[in-house]
Amino acid sequence: MLEQGRLGMSAVRLQNVFLHVTRACNFHCSYCYISAGDAMPDEMSTIEYRRLWSEIVALRPRKVVFTGGEPLLRDDILQLLSDLRAADPEHHVLRCLNTNGHLMTNELAKSLVGPADELRVSLDAMRERNDTIRGDGAFDLAVGALRLLHSVGFEPIVMVTVTSGTLPDLEELLCFLHGMNMTRIHLNRFHPIGRARECEQWQVKQDEVRSIMRKAWERNFPGHPHPSDPPEPSETSNCGVGSFLNILPNGDVYPCHVLMAREFHCGNIREQGLMEICDRNGLLGRLAAMDFKGFRDKYTANVTPYVCMRR
């Protein structure tokens, strides 16, 4: 087993590892960047993931995000979370789980306390618009999951993907979530990739989103100053490529959600060690040294990335 934290000078410094544990999903979201639906025929097993944990812990990303598809469709999802926890006794890495909430039960919510540090539930708009995009019943299932998670002690994060189709509901949604005592709300940037690759018109302007955020804040917290807006990306900042890792269910590794064409394929963890894939002299390290600012402006700077409705 690798000694925890022993990176050496040759490995890139990772912030987040996005672990797509399955491509199977019980919804069919219009904008899904991974085009989730059916499981891949060669998705990794519990044992294969177990071999990966020591390398992930040694690389010490800030977070490992278990995502999909819908990760709760894997029968072993609690085992995967628990195994990573056991491989990281000093708790250097946060364990996060993304879900659409469809399979959440009170028993499952209680079982996630401990194995998971952070629970994220997807909800994009009020009922009619949300279900048009995500599937019938998605709104009620997500709201139910948020309430269940809150009741067992989590402060769940609501993941909102903002598109031109959901923007008219954003103010009402933020106020609705505030009424549910949801204080952690992430506004995701829409990416014209995957199923939405021909839908660039769904993108919205940063100023529009910020204006709606202020209106919702004024309704929820009258008389209290609005928190400062997130800073604009600097002229010298890159899009973050090289500090993120996208691992698909079959072990293929890409630098992020957007750069998933074959020319950006960094390796496969069934064939190479993760340390080797993350070597600074490999493709991931070379990508980290490149200038992606223009790419960032097109794909990652269209929506304010985070809002916390907290007094």
Topology:
Layout: E1 16-20, H1 46-59, E2 63-67, H2 77-87, E3 94-99, H3 106-112, E4 118-122, H4 127-134, H5 138-151, E5 157-161, H6 170-179, E6 184-188, H7 206-220, E7 244-247, E8 252-254, E9 267-268, H8 274-277, H9 283-288, H10 293-299
Parallel strand pairs: 1-2, 1-7, 2-3, 3-4, 4-5, 5-6
Antiparallel strand pairs: 7-8, 8-9
Structural notes for this entry:
The chain is an alpha/beta fold. The chain is built from 10 helices and 9 strands. A 9-stranded mixed beta sheet has the order 6-5-4-3-2-1-7-8-9, with helices on one face. Helix 1 (46-59) links the parallel strand 1 (16-20) and strand 2 (63-67). The radius of gyration is 19 Å and the shape is globular. Mean pLDDT is 87; it is low at 1-8, 233-237 and 300-307.
